[in-house]
Amino acid sequence: MAAAWPAVPLLAALALWVYAVRHTDVSALDDYGLVSALHPTFWAGLAVLTAGFWFTVRDPRRRAGWPAAYVLGLLVIERATQAVLYPTPLYAWAWKHDAVIDHLLTSGGLQSADRLGDMAVYDQWPGFFAAQAALVRLLGVDNAAMYMAWWPLVSSVLLLLPLLLIYRTFTEDRRLIWTAVWLFCVGNWVGQDYFSPQSVAFALHLGVLAVVLRRYGRPGGRQRQAVWTVLLSVLVIAIVVSHQLTPGMLVVTLLALAFTRRHRDWVPLVTTVVIFLAWCLTAALPFLSAAMPDMIRSVGDIGANVETGYGSTPTGTGAVATSWAARLLSGSVLLLALAGVPRQRTLRQRALPLLLVAAAPLPMFAASSYGSEMIFRVLMFMLPGAAFFAAAALLPRVPAPATDARETERGGPPAPAPGRRSPLSSLPPLRYAAWLSPLVLLAGTLAFVPSYSGKDRVNYFPPGEVALVRQLFDQAPDDSLVVAANRNYPLAYEQYWRVDHYWFLEDTRAHVDDIVRDPAAVLARDMAGVEAPGRAYFLLTQGQVANSEMNGQLNTAQLRRVRESVADSPRFERVARNSAGVLYVLKPAS
Questions:
Q1: pLDDT score, position 3
Q2: Relative orientation angle of helices 222-240 and 197-215, to the nearest 10 degrees
Q3: Cβ(572)–Cβ(584) under 8 Å?
Q4: What are the two backbone dihedrals, phi and then psi, of residue 480, each rounded to the nearest 5 degrees?
């Protein structure tokens, strides 16, 4: 009976979560997103789960499978809540990727750079989309939208195996391993887990690091190393053909590892660089040739690379609060990691490669802004190493590798080794670990929710909005034009190979001001160049309004002015309207 005790808080937490999602209403989200909509039992479930995990992972009498069960329970609560609550998939970018897959399935190929401009990037890096097209066929579903709402849970589970392999390279202490995995899960709020090439590329990136850390830099025959080089090459090829940024992050990480004595094997780095350059100079060359001038200008301009642009600045109490929650969460993990380095002196020497893994992405700040997202990507790629040392800060002294297993059997850590000790390691265990560590872990776990789900008012598109946009594309003739405030609506790229788009909030600020002053007249002039049989449509939806208001574009009054002006203009005819938006068409000139 005592052996099954960890099941009690785990099942209780899951029961509270089930009750919470059954009693949560997401029909009217405010600026706090899912945070203010969740039933209170959701927070209670997270607290029970965190407490149960902490006491289970520190108890040497418990089987190793219990911490894994708790981490899986955490991922279900973290990543499956939105899939259960929302009747449609989140994120406009996920819908965009579904459109690319649909085009690949219907036409048998993607378009070239000379035909579709920035959409041709998907022709240059098609790996993820080709794999998803095959998966759609294999599952027998209509499109990827049938399952992409569950992709965050799937992609997060995929990260567990490489993470465990990496952490077990440096310690056998399951307390440290599973606490690091837990901190990684709660610190990974950036959102790379949605239906995207990045989600798969990041898992493959960790897979490459696991192979390098565990199989290179150790004595062994050339034949065995050749086998691992083949596996590594397969993983790198999958990364290179699927995503633009991840290969660069992998190169700088492998370069940092190659300068350590333990991993001074240049085969992984050279293999990655050769594959990366081969792709860039062949399949990806059309896109890179056009983008190279801007890329060169951004190199070294760190201030501009980390600066948020127009339309990406949190505006309003809710948006600002959730933004600060995310910053504090990442900052806390990094500060804990800095505290864990001097606290665990033996671990610092043994796990030096993980310190390099955490620090290696930092130079990427000088390389590019990556669409004002470089700071988030750097944090994400730093997290595997940072979470390990952050976990070390929350635990008592971690034993040396030879004593890890014996310590678990004895039920406690060995006596401290003689020598100089850091100030943090001299803190009394009961004062430091008995209550402060679990409270820090709980605070981070709770902070994940606003960090990850605080912008759900922007990211959620109700069924009415999906139906309105679908009605638009069902009737739009070839060579039509869709004008909208911004691209934050579902199906925004539906049939992008035959319908053009114009998002006026992405135009110059001066032109946006012209539209606000006289919306109907300026928009009608902008839309007048569409030739028959094509038509020009104006679409304004709930998702666009939320994105504009919460990211500092146009406020409520300005958006209302645009909508009323178009509604009152004789140049526009209303085609459809529901609670989630309105659709107009520009009448032909007489």
A1: 64
A2: 160
A3: yes
A4: -80, 170
Structural tokens at position 285: 């060359």
**Residue 539, H or E segment:** strand 536-541
Handedness of CA 330, 335, 337, 340 (dihedral sign): negative
Q: Residue 487's pLDDT band (boundaries 50, 70, 90)?
A: very high
Mean pLDDT of 372-401: 84
Q: List, in sequence order, the alpha helices (H) in 505-575.
A: 509-517, 519-527, 542-550, 556-568
* Tally of CB atoms within 10 A around 289: 10
Is residue 306 classed as helix, strand or coil in its secondary structure?
A: helix
Which of 35, 37, 147 is CA-nearest to residue 89? 147
Percent of all residues in the chain with a pLDDT value above 90, rounded to a whole number: 54
Average pLDDT of the residues in 282-286: 80
Percent of the chain with pLDDT over 70: 84
Q: What is the sign of the dihedral through the CA atoms of 259, 260, 262 and 268? A: negative
CA distance 98 to 196: 9
CA 70, CA 50: separation in Å to the nearest integer? Answer: 8
3-state SS string over 196-234? CHHHHHHHHHHHHHHHHHHHCCCCCCHHHHHHHHHHHHH
Contacts of 490 (CB under 8 A, 6+ apart): 88, 89, 92, 95, 461, 465, 466, 469, 543
pLDDT recorded at residue 297:
63
N residues, the chain: 590
Give the position of tokens 């002053």.
Answer: 517
Instruction: Look at residue 420 in the predicted model and tell me its pLDDT.
Output: 45
Average pLDDT of every residue of the chain: 85
Give the type of residue at 586: L
Mean pLDDT across the stretch 355-374?
77
Of 532 and 405, which is predicted with more confidence?
532
Which tokens sit at 546? 């939320």
Check if the beta carbon of residue 263 is closer than 8 Å to that of residue 254.
Answer: no
User: What sign results for the dihedral spanned by CA atoms 232, 237, 243, 247?
Assistant: positive
- Minimum mean pLDDT range among 183-192, 213-222, 371-380: 213-222
Three-state SS letters, 24-91? CCCCCCECCEHHHHCCHHHHHHHHHHHHHHHHHHCCCCCCCHHHHHHHHHHHHHHHCHHHHHCCCCCC
pLDDT confidence of residue 292: 66
Calculate mean pLDDT across residues 234-260: 91
Q: What contacts 479, CB < 8 A, 6 or more positions away?
A: 498, 499, 500, 530, 531, 533, 534
E-only strand ranges, 459-535: 480-484, 499-503
* Rounded distance between C-alpha atoms, residue 567 and residue 546, angstroms: 20
pTM value? 0.87
